[in-house]
Amino acid sequence: MNNKILQINENDNVVVAIKNLKREDKIIFKDTEIEINSEIPVGHKIAIKNINIGENIIKYGEIIGKAIDNINIGDHVHTDNVKTNLEDIIDYKYNKETINFNYKKEKTPTFNGYIREDGNVGTRNEIWIVPTVGCINQTAKNLTKLAKEKYGNKVDDIVAITHDMGCSQLGDDLEITQKILSGIIKNPNAGGVLVLSLGCENNYLEIFKPFLGEYNKDRIKFLTIQNVKDEYLEAMNLLGELVDYAAKFERKEVGIDKLKIGFKCGGSDAFSGITANVLSGKVNDEIVSYGGSTVISEVPEMFGAEHLLMARAKDKEVFGKIVDLINGYKNYFKKYNQEIYENPSPGNKKGGITTLEDKSLGCIQKGGSSEIVGVLNYGEQIDKAGFFLLNGSGNDQVSTTNLVASGVNLIVFTTGRGNPFGNIVPTIKLSSNSELAEKKPHWIDFDAGQLLNGIDFETLTESFLDYIVKVASGELTNNEKNGFKSITIFKDGVIL
Description:
single chain, alpha/beta, Archaeosine Trna-guanine Transglycosylase, Chain: A, domain 4, Ribose 5-phosphate Isomerase B, Chain: A, 3 domains, four-stranded antiparallel β-sheet, 13 helices, 28% helix
């Protein structure tokens, strides 16, 4: 890397501008001076050789699309002259890659967490009020205010987990809501949960409870508010019982093998796949190496890079599940007559990402380099150590909600353009560039853009892992400080 450009892989025929460049500016690539032919915004790609129409564009050492016009050395390489190569459903072949991964045997680093009765560990000890239906959201919010006034000093927080689903839903669509809500309720960051039902909704308690399976009756309480005279009095009594139960838990030292971390990117720019996502991947590998569990989702943002994930499947069974995950989501697009590869977003393109392959190859950097041990569907829980894939969209609110429903006790959220959003577990915002970190210090928790300013990956990985341990032990993230704690449930069906 020099002070103007970065080549990610030695086989690439493009480089990335790490500063804004003007027409007739000069860059040096491998002792060759290249004149810039037009304005190149920071994060955008520059041709380092002549690329003929129909020839592939190579970035990350992989194909990210093809030239739809002749591209000269020094040209801006972007949406005007590049098009995706991706097409319909693919017939994938099993071709397992040999994974040389170092599972560490020495003493495991530790954090201070809340050990639950089932052996899972929370990074927070909160009371969650979970409505089964959106029309009682305000009741949940009112109860949260009352409960905080009365019990707030006994637990880490009391949170109303509001949403717009649970009624006028049918079939698989309703079942997705039920699976996600049940997964959220099981999350170990909740020391106690009050499940609040109206009583006449599609998702009424009698059909919802079976999704929870066996549960701890001291930890989960239920109330149908149509069945009582004063729902606030009844709910506050139940919340008092939950607070008393949760308050018995104290932070205790545990190994980071008890961490379950979800990795997510949103508002990405061209540096996301170079700094923040790569740093996430290295931390992902560290957690897995010590016996922890990690997961990524955003299935549409695997398209174009899925072959790299499939090669890392633990065995043929897991490979088959990854194929089903990818093609299942492609068929979801086709069901609604939508383009499978209509991605990236306008903000992504402005930040320098050109095609879905470009975006996906950067996105999966969060997944590190270990084997993929399993594939999870909505609400399915992480049940062993290792790296998982999770079904779900790329939408920030929806995908983080899916992660929480899988049991993660912390989320790392990388961003290049910025986003203040946070879910109901600590959501660490990791910026891909220092400009964003400086501009939005009340959004960003850690700056991966330091990698562009001379800090090496080994040093920053150690520093970032130390920060994650502090958050897991109780240090508040910006989303927590600013009250950004919300969920959004994926919807795929009609509303009655």
